[in-house]
Amino acid sequence: MGQDSGWSKRTLLLVIVFISCVTIFPWLGPPVYFISFAFNVFIYITLATSWNIIGGYTGYLSFGHVAFFGIGAYAAAIFGMWFGLSPALNILASIPAGLVSMLLAILVGYPCLRLRGPYFAVITLCFAFVTELTIRNLDFLGGADGLWLKGLALPIEVSRSIFFELMLVLTLVTLFVANRIEKSKFGSGLRAIKEDEEVAQTMAINTPKLKITAFAISAFFPGVAGGLYACYLTYIHPDIVFDVNVSILIVLMALFGGGAFWFGPLVGATILTFVNEGLSTFVKAEYARIIYGCLFIIVIIFMPNGILEFAKTRMVKKPAKFEAAVK
């Protein structure tokens, strides 16, 4: 993080201290529930940040991104079964699983990214449904029974702590990549597409190449996360890893935080994961869906650029009002 990142030395030091504290947290002996909850927070941050690369920067709202998460989970499981990998090596298979998701994103994105607006949103949602149905009906992928994986032969506290660290690393890498993209010429091209794709093309910006590249990158990290999640659970099922509600939730998280910023999904995912946990614990599922629907409407209408932009605007207006009152 050099000068170009815009981070002061003090801010960088605080970030390093915070990350260090988070890193040692699972080894301080907290209840397993808190380690697992933090693991889920990291997953949602990774998924929301990855989605934001295509959805936030270019404005192409994908409602089927959970498909790449599920594909990564099944790819890691299949690699482990085909090659007889040990549980530790099966964890490393999460990286090629991410590459499988990326490859599929390129194949799917090439025709789908020709569509825009609601058409693209609908076709990506259909892609998630079709992928789930396909896997559910393939016997060698476990079909409707799912697949079991070998777990680490370690106490649950140690096993959960290891996966905590792995997901933390993946989350930090995802955030770093999103930060670099935002500040690069590539990111400027994506934002130009969001503003006006036709104008971007007249400025000699290769919009098809930028879109397919962004889509591929946004699929890689969910694929890796899916592979880690499969090894973490030691069991995967289409209902678990292809839950379309997750797709909608990560879109809400990214938009809630602010899709224009690399750290917007970080803020949105962290806040809404806590909200989601509270709703899951104290509210019935059908009411929780209604609440999320209302949240989605509120964000779109009142905070179209996210809570960060909303807070920033409010902070700018208050000093202006104060100065006007003084004068």
- Name the strands of the widest sheet in spatial order: 1-2
The Rg value, from CA coordinates, equals: 20 Å
End-to-end distance: 42 Å
The ordered string of helix (H) and strand (E) elements is: HHHHHHEHHHHEHHHHH
Strand content: under 5%
Extended strand count: 2
- Which structural category do the helix and sheet elements fall into? mainly alpha
Query: How many domains in all?
Result: 1
Shape: globular
Which labels suit this protein?
327 residues; mainly alpha; 1% strand; globular; disordered N terminus
Topology record:
Layout: H1 9-24, H2 32-55, H3 66-83, H4 87-92, H5 94-112, H6 117-136, E1 147-148, H7 156-182, H8 185-195, H9 197-202, H10 207-233, E2 235-236, H11 238-241, H12 244-257, H13 264-282, H14 285-302, H15 306-326
Antiparallel strand pairs: 1-2
Q: What would you say this structure looks like, in words?
A:
It is globular and about 55 Å long. With 327 residues, the chain is mainly alpha-helical. It has 15 helices and two strands. The protein has a two-stranded antiparallel ribbon. The protein has one domain.
How would you summarize this macromolecular structure in one to three sentences?
By secondary structure, this protein is mostly helical. It has one domain (31-326).
